[in-house]
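Batch manifest, entry 17 of 40.
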Amino acid sequence: MTKLSLLIEALAWRDVIDVLAVFVLTYNVLLLIRGTRAVQVLFGILFLIAISQAANLLGLDTLESLLERFFDILPFALIVLFQNQIRKALANFGKNPLYGLSTSHKVESSLQEIVLAASTFSSRKVGALIVLERIEGLRDYIENGISLDADVSFDLLVTIFNPSTSLHDGAVIVQGDRLAAAACFLPLTSNSELSLAAGTRHRAALGISEETDALALVVSEETGKISVAIEGELIEDLDQASLKDLLLKSLIADEEELTSLRQRLRQRLRRVTS
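Output type: structure tokens
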């Protein structure tokens, strides 16, 4: 028998549940910190751990002692720095401990609502900026806007971008089938090749597509033209059909990949617990 066969036979059902529980917990933690400053903090902590190990190997006692004292107070510092995020995370986790695995995104339906709204804005020459999250998280940008956490709908988008409302300035950010926030401020592109006629919305759309893998849909209030910024490129003058096709090709593949992973994990959990 191979070593792998012997290992599988030695595994008890408790071991399998233990491994899956750790995996689910880790997966949810990664979902919580995705797209936030916590990712950079995590990399910084890992870097300090590496320095601490190097100090131990090289016999740098003072540096090692200093880092050990820092690590003693680090948990308390993290709680203070991320208290709001921790509170929200625990609240979400309490509602649904497997929320990262059981969320069912109706992305295609949401995209249809977005396309319909964009076409309406175009015909009325109403300016709009809608950012659609892909793999990289946008939580830092969501937190600087007004939180909504609502279903994506034509009526809601039309209301938000009504020039007489206070939310029409800034961007709307969409996560899956949820409208996460409105009036969000985005980084502006520094691309010198962009036409001087391009307004702030177009520069913000390009800026967020350069900083992240997000897709940004922008409607010009001067011309009514619909454009999409993706990977630092601006695709201009789209009609309703071409816009829908572009959004589906760019976003559905990302969602199908995540959905496939969730389904495989649910199947494994059922086999273990059955």
